[in-house]
Write a structure and sequence with these properties.
It contains six helices and seven strands; from the N terminus they run H-E-E-H-E-H-E-H-E-H-E-E-H. By secondary structure, it is of the alpha/beta class. Helix 1 crosses helix 2.
Length: 216
């Protein structure tokens, strides 16, 4: 399976493309990027209220990132493009073992895995988390870095309905890394449920702090 893992070089190409697009179309303000560990496996837990959240984080993050992205996004020319820049296709309607194996492989190789723990776009407030984030964090032992994207869902002054106003400010706030597990190494359903509870508290606290910091 290792030959099917996305390469860090591909993700770095995606990062360079993201930098150009995000800074060309909007005004990203990045806070706390220094908190991201410079080496070793890391999981970005990103709130999700708009389609540009993933590309925005991919472009401004200090390290190349492999995002788990719903298979519905891999349509037409986007399929080879997203695959070519190291992103991971996941079927959310089933236990997608191929996606799970590849995501764990990214972490085992010391890379950065990006996850939208809410599972789909919503209010972007981390109010409802799926268990996938806890599974990857507990299984791999990788620290979670909470990431708040604020301003991407602003509906005022939009020229294009599906996008935030061009040249508007979008804040991306990276939080302190934290461990999801309790140190016991348990991977039972109960342990994952407990880890999900801990994660939710941490992410909600980071989001509240990010809003206070940015005035959003």
């Amino acid at each position: 399976m290792t030959d099917q893992l996305p390469s860090p070089r591909a993700a770095d190409v995606g990062r360079r493309i993201g930098v150009g697009l995000m800074y060309g179309l909007w005004k990203p303000r990045v806070l706390g990027a220094w908190r991201v560990p410079t080496t070793g496996p890391v999981i970005f837990a990103v709130n999700h209220s708009h389609n540009i959240d993933g590309p925005m984080v991919m472009g401004v993050a200090p390290r190349p990132t492999h995002f788990l992205i719903k298979k519905e996004a891999f349509i037409g020319p986007l399929d080879p493009f997203l695959t070519g820049i190291g992103q991971l296709k996941v079927d959310r309607d089933t236990t997608d073992r191929t996606a799970i194996t590849r995501a764990l492989g990214v972490l085992q190789n010391g890379g950065v895995l990006g996850i939208f723990p809410e599972g789909t776009r919503g209010e972007g407030d981390f109010a409802s988390l799926r268990a996938g984030l806890a599974y990857f964090a507990v299984r791999s032992g990788a620290p979670i870095v909470p990431v708040a994207v604020l301003g991407s869902s602003d509906r005022r002054g939009r020229l294009i309905k599906a996008l935030p106003p061009l040249r508007s400010r979008v804040d991306v706030v990276f939080g302190e890394p934290f461990a999801a597990g309790d140190g016991s190494g348990r991977r039972t359903r109960k342990a994952l449920d407990e880890a999900t509870g801990r994660i939710q508290k941490q992410l909600a606290a980071h989001l509240e702090n990010a809003r206070r910091l940015t005035g959003r």
